[in-house]
Each structure stands twice: as structure tokens, then as C-alpha cells.
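Note to self: keep these together.
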Amino acid sequence: MTPPRTLLIISSRQVWPAIIAVSHFRPERVVLLHTSHELLSLQPSRRLRDFLHGSELVAPGACVLHEIPDDDFNGIQTSLDQLPDELKRASALGFNAGSKLMAAAAFDWAKREKLQAFYLEWDDELQRFDFASGGVLTARAHPDLHRCDHLDPLSLIRCQAGVSLVSRSCEILSPRTNGFLDLAPADFDKKLFRTMAVNPSDWLDSKNAAGTRARQKGDPLEYATVIAALRAGVRQVARGVRLSIALPDSAGSQLHAELDVVFTYRGRLWVIEVKDRKEVEGARALIKEKIVAAWEVGGDLGRFVYVSRTVPGPDLLAFAKSLGVAIVPKGNLRNGMSQLLKEQPRPHLP
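Structure:
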């Protein structure tokens, strides 16, 4: 199929399908189709537009907004008819978001106009449709998810989360030297925790140190988790990301979640909770709480991982598996993180 020059994307709070599509097609222009609903559509579309511009996935000013109804089949098509001809020409419609009514009306409109359409499956298979011939030509594509690896995790959180404010006190970590990346597995395992306990800066460069926060007992395992992710191919990691809710009447903000380790990899935002304790009291409740935070910042396609000091019991392992949560024991950190990052992405349950 001919690559589209313009993407017409139904927009909502789930931003990853749109980001993956833009990264894959590299269009000249993007039109975000939103409704008048502030929290569910309009504000997320504005944040996504700003993110696409700020991350240079599209040229400055090349992403615009266009309002459509959410409850009127004919009205949706009438609104799409009002798009300028240059935006409809050589375009493809993305219909991952919005209601079923919106998707059906927009898809029918694209067929009538003999345009293209596409839908991204949860496993990142791109279903494509081309109506140019008057019939329906279908095809499948598999976007290169590594095209998204360079995207800044904090900018993605701000784009997705909406009501949450991201603190600037977190560390942004990347390799100081490539030496540990090239170590043989046995040498890496031997040196990893010793280096992280004594001086993490031997291996890690911090662009935004976490200020004067006192060193804590669990820091070496958090840094080791960062190192394991970087060795597996991640480009940069945010550590100690604090999320706050803005309070009304200029009363400041209230901290409501802290994310230990966050990074972008293969079209997903990964959130890792690290607990360097023999047993974590209330682990089930903690996992549920952290999943909610991971879902808030990563959307439906986000990944949540629980790194623990010991191998949890079979009941906790089964509980985590039922929620789509991966558990990596400290003793299997290098291999566990490497295997996770190679797996076919799958959604967790919010």
C-alpha cells in the first residue's frame, strides 16, 4: 500500500497507538480527531499534539486538532467532510480510540472517500485497509517498536497521565561507560551489586541527580535494576519519579505515587517497583496499587514489573500472573530483565 502523507487519528486518553502509528508511518501531517469532552478527549489530544511536536515525531505545527461529535453517526461524517481537501488527500484513518460508534462512522467515511484506514492490535500488529480501488485491499504490518526507544519517559508520562504532575527531583540515568555492557555474564553478575552498593556513578551517569535525598537501603537494588535494563538495550531510565495531584484554589499539590524505575522500550512505558526486603507485608495490595499508577502513566499498553529480593511464594506468583505482572527475583536480575524485554508485549490489567 502507498504510505499515507496524512494521518487522521481518533484521539483519546490512550496515546501509545497514535505514537506508534506516527513513528511507523512518518507522515507529513497528523490530524487528531477529538470530541468536546475535556478530560477524555480534548485535553489528551492537546497533550498528544504537544508531545508529537516536542519529540520531533512531526514537524512543528504539522499536528492539528479537529473536533467531531461522539454520539451522532451522520454528524461525525459531516464533520469529517469539513476537513480541508489537502488533509484528506493521501490520508489514512486510525480508529483505535473513541467509542464504537465513532470508529464505525469514521471507518465508513474513509471507505466512502476511498482513503486508507488502520488499527493497531494490542500485540502491535497493524491492520491496514485501502479503499482506493472501490473494494477493500487489506494488509498487515509490524512496526519497528525500537523507533520509540528514544522517547523521553517523563514527557510520555506527562502526555498520558493528565491530572498527575511529574516531579523534577528524579534521576535520569544512562551508561557512564560501555564497559559493563560488554562484561561476560559471570563477571557482570559478580561486579553488579558490589559496584551499585559502593559507587553507582562508576557505571551510571545522572543528568538530574535526586538532590540531597539520603541514601536508602534499597538504593543498590534500584540501581542494579537500572543497570540490568540498560544492559538489555534500554537507552535511558528515570528513577524515583514522583506523581502529584494539583490541589484546587492554588493550594499546591499532593503526592500520590512514586515510581521506582521507569523507561521506554519497544513501544511501551515500563514501570518497575523494587523491594529489597525479605518479605513485603501486604504485597498483593502493593501490587494492585502500583498497577493503578503504572496504568495511569503507561496507559493500557503499559508494562509493570515487580523486582523482589527473594522468589515470592506460588500464591503471589499466581496472583501477579493473573494481572499480567512480571516478577523478577534479585538473584535472576540480569537474565530476568533481558528475557522480559525480549518477550512479546502484553497488557496488564488496571
